[in-house]
Write a structure and sequence with these properties.
By secondary structure, this protein is of the alpha/beta class. It has 2 domains: 115 residues, 2-keto-3-deoxy-galactonokinase, substrate binding domain (Nucleotidyltransferase, domain 5, 2-Layer Sandwich), CATH 3.30.420; 116 residues, Nucleotidyltransferase, domain 5 (2-Layer Sandwich). It is built from 9 helices and 14 strands. Helix 2 crosses helix 9, helix 4 packs parallel to helix 6 and helix 5 packs antiparallel against helix 6. 42% of the residues are buried.
Length: 297
């Protein structure tokens, strides 16, 4: 059955493009492609989007509200950063100029931190979605992923945040370093926990611990699934040690993909933290709904 969108919500990251046909707050259909920001030039963004959503367009003009790296300097249009402390959607989405006449496209601005420099694009939308469903929530939001964010929230504002490249480092080490010969595709909870404990207590040992994975394989024929899990534990343990000032003694919401979020929640709960797991895609859509309302309909 044909779908006609009232408006279209878009999460456009570095590697993926995801879109939802919307009617008010209701999802009618969804679609995705691998046309992420890193694979496109300025002139390729609109064709990539139309290739995904054209069947949802009517005869008039359809609103598109997008978040993520689509608003980066290399994106479709460069959206400004708002400086923290600030509400996650402190400024309305900006209009993309010179689009196909069937589109009225807008991009959500990101956030920046000038002291201890840091930036985010896309995560501010997930934070806005979370806060729209959790009134008067103070604490820390953890957004695990390629670049994991730890975000301190108070009085409806992002007070400060810190980014860790843990996911990207894991991918590089497991796929392009000497460890690629030892790392499998499976999992082992005991090995994950042992790696986590090692770097949570002694994060300065991480470089030696990493090579120990390869040495253990060469000398003892280590299980590659255990190696993968221990590698993850070592990296997340070092991250938690560095982010301790964010999560210790705080209410924590872990917002993201189910499997990775559960891994972070498991690690935090072992340290006695109070953790709530929240679906990342749901928060992205809720945030895009909030962004659309902020610009006016």
């Amino acid at each position: 059955m044909a779908v006609m969108a009232e408006w279209i919500a878009v999460d456009w990251g570095t590697s993926r493009l995801r879109a939802w046909a919307m009617k008010g707050d209701e999802i009618l259909a969804e679609a995705s492609s691998d046309a992420g920001m890193s694979k496109l030039t300025k002139t390729e963004f609109e064709p990539a989007l139309l290739g995904l959503i054209e069947d949802w367009l009517g005869h008039g003009q359809t609103e598109v509200v997008a978040c993520g790296m689509v608003g980066a300097r290399q994106g479709w249009v460069e959206a400004p950063y708002a400086a923290v402390p600030v509400a996650p959607l402190s400024a309305p989405p900006i209009r993309v100029p010179d689009t196909d006449p069937r589109l009225a496209a807008y991009v959500v601005p990101g956030l920046k931190q000038t002291r201890q420099p840091d930036v985010m694009r896309g995560e501010e939308t997930q934070v806005a979605g979370f806060l729209s469903a959790h009134d008067d929530w103070d604490g820390v939001i953890c957004l695990p992923g390629t670049h994991t964010k730890w975000i301190h929230i108070s009085a409806g504002e992002v007070v400060s945040f810190r980014t860790f490249m843990t996911g990207e480092i894991f991918d590089l080490l497991s796929g392009a370093s000497v460890l690629r010969h030892s790392v499998g595709e499976g999992w082992d909870d005991t090995s994950f926990q042992s790696g986590l404990d090692a770097t949570l207590s002694r994060p300065e040992s991480i470089s030696a611990e990493l090579f120990g994975l390869r040495a253990n394989d060469l000398l003892n024929g280590a299980d590659p699934n255990a190696c993968r899990a221990r590698l993850s534990g070592l990296l997340i343990g070092a991250e938690l040690a560095a982010a301790r000032a964010y999560w210790l003694g705080q209410s924590i919401a872990v917002v993201g993909a189910e499997k990775l979020s559960a891994t972070y929640a498991q690690a935090l709960k072992k340290q006695g933290a109070f953790v709530t797991l929240v679906n990342g895609q749901d928060m992205t859509i809720a945030g895009l709904i909030a962004a659309r309302k902020a610009k006016g309909t």
